[in-house]
Give the backbone structure.
Amino acid sequence: MNHLNVFNAYKNKSNSHEDELTRSFLILVKNIPMVQVMFFELIRKEMYEENIHSIASGDLSVEEVHTQLSDTNNIFTSGLVDGRTLVSVIISDDKFEGGANVQNEDRKARYDGVVLCNPSWVFIIENKPSKDNIWTRQLNPNIPDSVEVKIVDKPCCLSWRAILTGLNSLIQNSMLNGIEKVLVEDFIEYVDNEYSWLNPYTTFEVCKGNTYLLDKRCNLALSNFLIRGKKPEVKYHRGWKHYIESGKNTVKQIALDSSKNGEGWSITVWLHAGDTMSAAKESFKNMDTDKLLELKLQGFDIEPNFHVSYRSSNLLWFSGNLTLEQYLRYWKKEYKNLRQIKRPEFMTYFDEMEASCMIGADDRNIIQEKIMNKNYPNLNICPGFTITYTWDSKSAIKLDKCGKFEEDFMKKVNSAFAVIGGI
């Protein structure tokens, strides 16, 4: 049975073997038209001088895909490649710049991949996950003298990072559905597990400002964050962000994501302290107000996050008229009085909050609409505050290039927790 059958994995090769990487990718090329489009567009751009037309135009179509073929296979001896133009493709972690010339050579050749395309093309593929392990003679085909094949003397040098960027883009732009989407996502996950260094989001610099890839890099940083000496699971909160659980009640979730700023971008860590009533009590109990305010001198941003909730659903947020310091000192004094408010007390409590400048007079209409006109039997009062720290693109790239971003990320989180209850 052919190894490009999805269910015929190698029995004697591990998942981390480069032949398994080749096999897995060629399954996508064989079966998913949009992956074919992406792959041959990369080839066309690299080989623009050779006039390899884009598969997207309909001028190029895949006929057959094979893996691990020897030069004695009947594809090369039966005349099937006769009259075709042969392109030798090398795929490595980064683009190979060795400047090799491709020529026919009498050697025992075994091709990692062979793709026959109409009209009259044959692509042989050599996979080397590390460009440092490339032996240039492996780019040479061994075609029998009796077979007429035009060999392009320039190799097509592609990088796995460019391919993975393309696959991520297909997912990001919703160009795949059903089993095709599942297969591509599974392949990306496979590479994450077995060849993590190939990913196009290993550093912020290689993400090239693509927020989808920047967020992937953020998720990688989250997954490497140590909580009590262990790496956490990265989860997704619908309508919010990817996050990890801190294991503490003061700030339950740690989030990290990217955002566009005009022509540039930035990375921000988000910490919502006191997001529930019990979390607010613990946050203000532990909080050193002066030290929390001093975080602003270190580049942190801190904003009030006063809201009310019913059970686990947040209902309304209020900006109020207090400065940050006034807000923090008010709740540092009053946090012990936090309790669940029963419905008969609603209006009295909101009167008190307005008198304390915690809410404004213009909030009354929304309170009437969203709370008083509903049947909530009680409310939870949540005087939280949000701590953020933002790295601009230049700072994030500089830290990541020297392997220091994740260390700085952890340092910033721990600095925040140190004043409200450490990890």
Summary: The mean pLDDT is 90. The first strand starts at residue 61 and ends at 70.
